[in-house]
Automatic annotation (TrEMBL):
Domain ABC transporter intervals: 3-248
Membrane topology: Peripheral membrane protein
Keyword flag ATP-binding: yes
Ranges annotated as spanning the membrane: none
UniProt keyword terms in alphabetical order: ATP-binding, Cell membrane, Membrane, Nucleotide-binding, Transport
Annotated localization: Cell membrane
Membrane is among the record's keywords: yes
Family: Belongs to the ABC transporter superfamily.
Pfam families xrefs: ABC_tran (PF00005)
GO molecular function ontology, one term from the record: ATP binding
Protein name: ABC transporter ATP-binding protein
Record InterPro entries: AAA+_ATPase (IPR003593), ABC_Ni/Peptide_Import (IPR050388), ABC_transporter-like_ATP-bd (IPR003439), ABC_transporter-like_CS (IPR017871), P-loop_NTPase (IPR027417)
Organism: Dactylosporangium cerinum
Length: 265
């Protein structure tokens, strides 16, 4: 699965919020997209799947395995979402439907894209719940999101994104709302699942310490523009742009340590 974004520009009600972003992600690659709040990183990801807010206009090119996505209609984009590309959002409380059992939500894309029956989808949901290390899978799929912890809800969201075996996974700040211990478990889960499936991963965050644990390379955004692209090690140890330097300082200020980067500060 390859993703190529070229000269992407996004305007919302006449205001440019993403300005000329380009990046490339090859089959099985992992790439970080990092920036401060309001930098345009999440909007860039949402543009890939046609999930931008009403009033948005998009120019430039977004190609998924060579197919141009910019300009596709809702029905065509819906066929891409959940099947060829899965997304995990920052806050599962808002991403998950509060009045539907989690098993139905995990299996929904299987029913939409592959015509699974309700029973078949639920059986697969149980296996997916086990795969993402949710406790007591057969019972947890019968529960509602508010009955689960924050970490469990995020694992449900990951299971739903993985259900159809997409070749591209977009993770939009998936650990931001979680405490440090739960963050580590979620990152380990992403690392294992992406590694085993061979899917491509676009991981979005504002935290360089998080990126250091999940991807080798990253693109830095500021005010909707790409300001730097380098290995994560390079961004942490020799940032070339003031925004990147601030992100690196923030990572170290939170107690980030990694043997790979020792002696470089």
């Amino acid at each position: 699965m390859s993703l190529a974004i070229e000269d992407l520009r996004i305007s919302i009600r006449g205001r440019t919020v993403v300005d000329g972003v380009s990046l490339a992600l090859g089959d099985g690659d992992r790439l970080g997209l990092i920036g401060e709040s309001g930098s345009g990183k999440s909007l860039t990801a949402l543009a890939v799947l046609g999930l931008l807010p009403a009033g948005s206009t998009v120019t430039g090119s977004i190609r998924l395995d060579g197919r141009e996505l910019v300009g596709l209609g809702d029905r065509e984009l819906a066929a891409v979402r959940g099947k060829r590309a899965g997304i995990v959002f920052q806050e599962p409380v808002t991403a998950l439907n509060p009045i539907r059992r989690v098993g139905a939500q995990i299996g929904e894309s299987l029913r939409i894209h592959y015509g699974f029956s309700k029973r078949q989808a639920l059986e697969r949901a149980v296996r997916l719940a086990e795969r993402v290390h949710l406790p007591d899978p057969e019972h947890i799929v019968q529960r509602y999101p508010h009955e689960l912890s924050g970490g469990q809800r995020q694992r449900v969201a990951i299971a739903a994104a993985l259900a159809t075996g997409p070749r591209l996974i977009i993770a939009d700040e998936p650990t931001t709302a979680l405490d440090v211990t739960i963050q580590a478990g979620i990152l380990d889960l992403f690392d294992r699942e992406v590694g085993e499936s061979g899917a491509s991963l676009l991981f979005i965050t504002h935290d360089l310490a998080v990126l250091a644990r999940i991807v080798p390379r990253a693109v830095v955004l500021a005010a909707g523009r790409v300001v730097e692209e380098a290995t994560v090690e390079g961004l942490l140890t020799a940032p070339a742009h003031p925004v990147t330097a601030a992100l690196a300082e923030a990572a170290y200020a939170t107690g980030f340590t990694d043997p790979a980067f020792e002696g470089h500060r």
